Amino acid sequence: MNTRNMKIILFALSASLVAACATTSEPVRPPVNIEIQEQVGFTITEEGRIGGDVRADYEMALSYLQQGRHDEGIELLEQVADAAPELSAPRIDLGIAQHRAGKLEAAESNLLLAIESNPEQPVAHNELGIIYRKTGRFPDARKSYESALAIYPGFHFARRNLAILCDLYLADLDCALQNYEAYMKTVPSDEEASMWIADIRYRLDQ
């Protein structure tokens, strides 16, 4: 079986957080909106009411991560996530940062918490699928990718991840071909994926 580079696809998750004074009401699940920006791009926005200091900490944490100050960013994101448990965005960013730092167990825990607080987050499902794949839980990875695609069928990174999983790890060539072809409709310029499709068709004909 030929080998292929497995790339971790990271997303810039945009959270629209409405700063406000703390209230005494029970937290409610904030709405999640997927805004299509272009053929292969989208932004996820999540609205919630948080204190101005929490929002400032969140923005600072993301700034730390962009600067490569990962330990500081992770530490501050942990504080933000604890302060705003009803929001999934800080948990997702925290999980992605921990994943990049090689802390897979912690990343998995935070991504699961993000999904618990808001199941309609395709990025969380996709990232969780990558972790499951890296830790050898291939059926769970498939379920996670499929969950992401059920929320947003045009999520091309999840589509590609599912195709590779079916091809290299599950030996499900029909699943692989179907998802590669769906992926190529969104990203027709991916020459590598085009070669993989030709390879699978050849194997299916044998």
- Taken from the alpha-carbon principal axes, the silhouette is elongated
What's the count of strands? Answer: 4
The total count of helices amounts to 9
Low-confidence stretches: 1-32
CATH class identity: Mainly Alpha
Q: Find the CATH topology.
A: Serine Threonine Protein Phosphatase 5, Tetratricopeptide repeat
Count of folded domains = 1
Could you state the CATH homologous superfamily? Tetratricopeptide repeat domain
Q: Rg to the nearest angstrom?
A: 18 Å
Please identify, by name, the CATH architecture: Alpha Horseshoe
Mean pLDDT: 82
As an assembly, this protein is single chain
Give, in order, the helices and strands: EEEEHHHHHHHHH
Question: What's the SSE blueprint?
Answer:
Blueprint lengths: L17 E2 L12 E7 L2 E6 L2 E2 L1 H15 L3 H14 L5 H12 L3 H14 L4 H13 L3 H14 L4 H14 L3 H14 L4 H15 L1
Parallel strand pairs: 1-4
Antiparallel strand pairs: 2-3
Helix pairs in contact: 1-2, 2-3, 3-4, 3-5, 4-5, 5-6, 5-7, 6-7, 7-8, 8-9
